[in-house]
Structure formats: structure tokens, C-alpha cells
Amino acid sequence: MATLAVLALGSAPADALAASPQDNASTHTALVAAYSALHGIVSTWPTIEASLHKLDQRFAAECPDVGAGSPQNESEQSLSYEVAGALWATAYHTDAKYADAFIKAVSPLRWSNHSIVRRGLKFIVGLHEMIALKVPDICGDVRTWTAGGFTTVPADTQQFDDHVESINVEVPSPRILAPYARPSDRGLLERVEHLLTRFEELEFTVGQRFWNTLLETLALNQ
């Protein structure tokens, strides 16, 4: 899953200039917002797993083994990626309240380093797009693909894959805000880093497990 996700902004250079009061204040607000979002997501992780399990149950009921007999080729990889996108869409929708709160908190923030502001706005756009992402009609797309002899990627699949691929929700390291953090915020920065590490571990392991599960349900290859 490219996830689910949430978090600290920016790309400050290592030799950042001395932080201004606005830099300090914006960094504090961003770290508080990141901690709140990450803590909420990590502490309610079973809710995400439940939503992914529900998605698998939906496919099991609507189109079990719909891709049976499919070859492992380039077009099949597009269908597999569409399944991954469905997982991301489900996870981001489940966690939308945390992402929305984060976006609301950090959108007005400004730093003297304008690259942080630009990167922050780009990240916010990506979060908005992931929250709005809808689970595609995978059952219908796989049926279309199989009916065509497993050769042509359905137009809807290609459009969905291209859209997901264009979304930028890469989570930068919170450490890039360190030059702008007050001494009193150092502990908060460390807690955000710890939560981010835990989030990434959960995202990878759970995402991989459910991707394999859904592919098995649909009888698709990786």
C-alpha cells in the first residue's frame, strides 16, 4: 500500500539557515499533526485489517477464481496492480479522518525554506487524491480480460493504474524538519519517527499479505 498515510513534510537541506520563529511554530504544528495522525492509524490498525478482509470477502462472493487459467504476462501484471490499488483505496478511505485532520492542520503552514512549502502542498494533493480513490470494478475488468483471451488490458484497468501511479504520497523522513525544531520538540520528533517506522512495517507486511490473499481469491498471479 503505498498507503495508507500521513505525516511530516518537506525536504530541507542539511545546511538549512537558522530557523525563524515561524519556522519553529510551523514545525511544531506539523510534528503534532503527524504524531496525532500516526498514533491514530497505528493504534486502530485492526480497523484497517478488517476493512481489507471485508474487501476480500466481497470479491470471494462476487467473482471467486474469476481469473482462473490466466497466464503470468504483462497484461496480468496490470490486473495485479489494480488489485493493489484497490487495497490502497480501501485503506485510505478507512483512515480518511486522520488524513483529513492532518491536511487541515498543515495546509496553512509556511517555512522560510520554500521547498518545504512546495513539497508539503504536493503531498497534500496526493493525500486528497488517495482519499478520493474508489475501488475499481476488478471483477468486471478481469472478466473482460479473460473474455479477450488474456491479451488486452481493459481500458478501465489501464486508466486506474495510470492514475494511481501518478499519485505522490511518499512519506519523507520527519528528520528533515530537525533543523527547524525547538529543543522542546526533539522528543516529539523522535516519537514521530518511531511511529512512522511502525506504520511502515505494518503497511508493508499487512499490505503484502492481503495482496496475496486477494490475488488468490481472484485466481490471479503476481
Explain this structure to me?
The chain is mainly alpha-helical. The chain has eight helices and no strands. Helix 1 (21-43) crosses helix 8 (186-218). It has helices spanning 21-43, 45-62, 74-94, 96-106, 114-132, 138-147, 155-166, 186-218. The chain has one domain (32-218). Mean pLDDT is 89; it is low at 1-17. The two termini are 15 Å apart.
Concise structural overview:
The chain is mainly α and 222 residues long. The chain contains 8 helices and no strands.
Features:
66% helix, mainly alpha, 222 residues, 0% strand, single chain
Tell me what portion of residues adopts beta-strand conformation. Answer: under 5%
Radius of gyration (CA) equals 20 Å
The number of helical runs is 8
Low-confidence stretches: 1-17
Instruction: Identify the overall geometry.
Output: elongated
Overall pLDDT score: 89
Oligomer: single chain
Total strand segments: 0
The computed structural class is mainly alpha
State the end-to-end CA separation.
Answer: 15 Å
What kind of sheet is the major sheet?
A: none
Provide the number of structural domains: 1
Q: Percent range for helical residues?
A: 55-70%
Helices and strands, in order, run as HHHHHHHH
